[in-house]
Amino acid sequence: MAAGTWRDGARFCEIANEAEKKSKAGEAGKLFGRLLTPEVVEELHAAFIWAEDGAMDPLDGWKRFCSMLQETEKIRGAIDAPLRDTGERATHRAAETGKLQNLKWLLDNRADINATTAPALELSPAGDVSLGLTPVLVAASFGQTKALELLASLGADLNLARADGATALDLAADKDHAETVSWLEQNGAVRGLT
């Protein structure tokens, strides 16, 4: 699939509708009984990103959609698809809000544990600017120590830095998250800024 196809919502939906017709995961030409339009895909994706902790229906629904795209169109990685307006992925939202069940589900389903936020329309009308935050950086910034523990236990890099050099330890300290700072220091995190 050409890189620009993801940005062309109508073309993406055309491909997805065709994929569902060919897919074993699909239902008679419609995903969940609905014809896919850019609005429907964005609605499904937002429900996935914003799912309540432990609410499996939105997570499993998006996974089914991703499986259908992979099976029929060989499109991989949709589990990590970012929101267009914010650039955040489901792993970032779960890390920010401490939704540990969702975070574990995402990582069990091969979401990229070190994925950075994508370019966002909120940052630039052209959608060409990203904050470059990993789930670890997001969790540290919001003082989500339990999310950091889970991410670290599954192999996340606690010392990946933003483009400016800021690390999780820098962000937690900047926000005065003392418990998170202590945990990060005890687990080998280093400062990137001086």
From TrEMBL:
Superkingdom to which the source organism belongs: Eukaryota
Key words of the record: ANK repeat, Repeat
InterPro entries in the record: Ankyrin_rpt, Ankyrin_rpt-contain_sf
SMART domains (UniProt xref): ANK (SM00248)
Pfam families: Ank, Ank_2
ANK repeat feature ranges: 86-118, 131-163
Protein name: Ankyrin repeat domain-containing protein
Organism of this sequence: Effrenium voratum
